[in-house]
Amino acid sequence: MRDTRNLTVPPTVWRETAGFLSRVQKCPTSAANGLASARAEVQLSSSWFGPLAALLAAPVYRCSVMARAGKRSPASRPWSATKIIASMAEGQDQAAILLRDGRQIIARGAVRARQPAFSITKMFVAVACLRSAARGLLDLDDDAGRWSPVVPPDLPLRQLLGHTSGLADYPSTRAYQMALAADPAKPWPLEEILAVTVAQPRSVRGTVRYSNAGYWMVGAVLERASGAALADVLAAEVFRPADMAHTAYPDASTSLTPDGYSTLWAGPAGAVWSTAHDLDKFLAALLGGTLLTASGLAAMQEATPIRPHPPWPAPGYGLGLMTDDVLHSIGHGGNGPGYQTAAFARCDRHRSAVVLAPASAPQDAVGHAVAWLTSGEDVNQETE
Question: Is residue 382 part of a domain?
Answer without folding.
Answer: no
